[in-house]
Amino acid sequence: TLIEILSLSIMNYSPLALKINLMEKLLIIIAVLFSAPIFAQDASIIGVLQEESGEAVPFANVVLKSALDSTIVKIETTDNAGVFRFVDIPSGQYNLEATFVGMDDLMLNDISLGENSPVDLGIQMLSASSVQLETATVTARRAMVEVKPDRKIFNVQGTINATGDDGITLLRKAPGVIIDNNNNISILGRSGVLVYVDGKRLPLSGTDLSNYLAGLPSDQIDRVEIITNPGAKYEAEGNAGIIDIILKRDKSLGTNGSLSGNYTFAIKDRYTTNFNLNHRNKKLNFFGNLGFGDQAGYERIEFDGRQNGFRLQEVSEWTGDQPSLTGKVGTDFFINDNNTVGFIYSGRLSEGDNISSNRNRISSLTTPDQIDSTLFADNTGTTDQRFNTINLNYRFKKEKNSLNIDLDYGFYDNETEQYQPNLYYEGDMGEKLLSSNIQNITTPTNIDIRSAKIDYETEWLGGAFGIGGKLTMILTGNTFLFENVIDGQQVTNNQRSNTFDYDEEVQAGYVSYNRPLTEKWALSSGLRLEHTISNGELMPFDPSLAEPPVEQDYYSWFPNLGLTYQYSPIHSFGLSYGRRINRPDYNVLNPFRNQISELSISKGNAFLKPEIVNNVQLDFTYKYRYSFSLGYSKTVDQITRLIGPDDIDPRAGFISWDNLNTQTNISASASLPFQFTDNFTAFCNLSAWFLDNQADYGDEGGTIDLQAFSYNGFMQATYNFPNIITTELSGFYSGPGIWGGVFEYESQWSLNFGLSKKFLKDQLTAKVSLQDIFKQAGWSGMSSFNGLNSIGMGDWDSRRLSFNLNWQFGNDQLKSSKRKTGIEAEADRAN
Questions:
Q1: CA 117 to CA 90: how far, in whole Å?
Q2: Distances in Å between the alpha carbon of 680 and those of 160, 240, 714, 726?
Q3: 224: closest CA among 248, 254, 206, 202?
Q4: Distance CA 375, CA 303 (A)
Q5: What letter does residue 240 receive in the DSSP assignment?
Q6: pTM to 2 decimals?
Q7: Is 584 left (phi over 0), alpha (psi -120 to 50) or beta?
């Protein structure tokens, strides 16, 4: 209002006021006097928060309370200039409380507000707090990205441009996260990322993991936590850190819930519906959700390869439907103020169908444009997935002592079946059939997980001492049934079929200790010991092909150390070191040959060694919002995907797995939130890294000596037209780099736009979004290894138009605590 402009200009509260001369001030005064009747009905309270140095305090929380009963009347936050405003406030007596992390609270009592009489509180000073801080995030509403000492939190709930997404697409937008052409996940160029859901490790990898994430609607996701340097309490698995996908769960007292629906138009339309319900009283908390939908999709891949005197031009298109039913139900029983027991069951059922078309044109390198023959491989397949997990939890907390016990059981059943005719035709047009080889491939996988974990924390020697242990037992069974179809009959090929059983037991114990050293310095430390016992046994259907089992038994130490320095209440530095391990996933240990055609093969490596990485990271945080980091890591025996010629068919290429000698990664990142006005906010994340891959597989295996500099940027801007509509513009740009060990990819980018509107007293929210407007999210690149030179590109139905409705019902006024339950990590890496 003009009254606020006048008060700001007179008191020099903002840099804008310094530019207003005396004549301008007089004109404003005249305008205010003549317009006074217009604003006469509004009473307001205004003020400014500053540090003792005179610097403004932005985004502080300011709470206005009734002086009679201390009930909250309204909550606001200061803007970039430290200004706070309470407008349209009834007359009466009020108390005001201002808080900002790292500073003492400010209390102002007995503020008298008369009718039509604005109150100017002037400049109020906040003093630096003597309390040592560990983490801080200050926002009026959840920022899209929160920065904490050990993680970045990508808040998804409420963002328009997450509408219609699935889990794998949503991760492409997360700060510093890269998804490659095979849906492998990396952070700042580092592979070996563990994926959790609600604090529990997903025992999936490869295609199974990407299928699970593709079937997880974004409507069910609350936030994504990216933990780049986990402490000793976390399992040491995963050299690039942990991505924890936190699903929605209401935190209110009483009974409440939500019902949402989404429909997305794309090459393959998709839809989802979700229902959430929560009931809580003083003795019981019950929560549950149920979701149903079809996360259909489309994908196209092209490769042009040269090897062993042949040129192969391959084009593959895939379309699929993946209807799924997901559910979760849980209870917390509050025995008393100190003891709680809980139970959670979660499950997912998915039965999908897919069709793929594969064309591979074969020619000689002497006449590369003259097609000699073409392989047609039109596959049809089905996928049947069933996931079930049960968690029992006991928690004790009294003063500064806490005990947490988790018992978990999980069973994962996944079966795929693929009917694959390989038909060779003369030339390019497929007129004359040269030969045919029809195959049926069935690959059931069963994973049984049992886990017990205990964590105890207490105060000791002026700090927080933690100790705990975990026992995890995983039993996996994999069958690869390869059948030749002859005259319509399926005949088992014993030379190609096998079973692969892999059992693993991990015994772990840890200690951690965190404490302030001085008023400015703080220490965090920990040491974890893990004992791994594993046995992998490949059993071919033909006994003459049997190989001895692969057995491992080893101990590993994983120290971590961190120092933080609070230079001032708004400047903090952190230096951390951690050592981690990444064990090979079960799908890459199994040496059977899988294929999308006879000329496109993948196979595992039973002799892979675990990779060990040492990470060092330096962080700087300014005003608890702007975060900058520098990182260095060196990985020994880096597990990587390689693309090379097949050793049986000279025309065929295969994807295999092996260990690099070393991988060195130097990275930098910046997280920058902005609030230009009360209605206009933005967030920007910038990341850059340098990779150096080194390996030597001997004269016949090839060498790798690749270096690449890459970068990634993500942006989202939100503008709110009050009481009208909210708009969002977001996008990412990823520069060229290296996937796996040898694939050098080109840049890719995407731009998204969304609108949101609330109805029925904000209980009903309608959203519409358009993803990848310019259709630039596809990938392209090249690889050269061991005699195979290949150029590739691919895309999917990334351009999507989505419509979403969400209805919130029930009591949403009173908040209660949220229990983080379940397995912290599942040491299973299965396909």
A1: 10
A2: 15, 34, 17, 10
A3: 248
A4: 14
A5: T
A6: 0.71
A7: beta
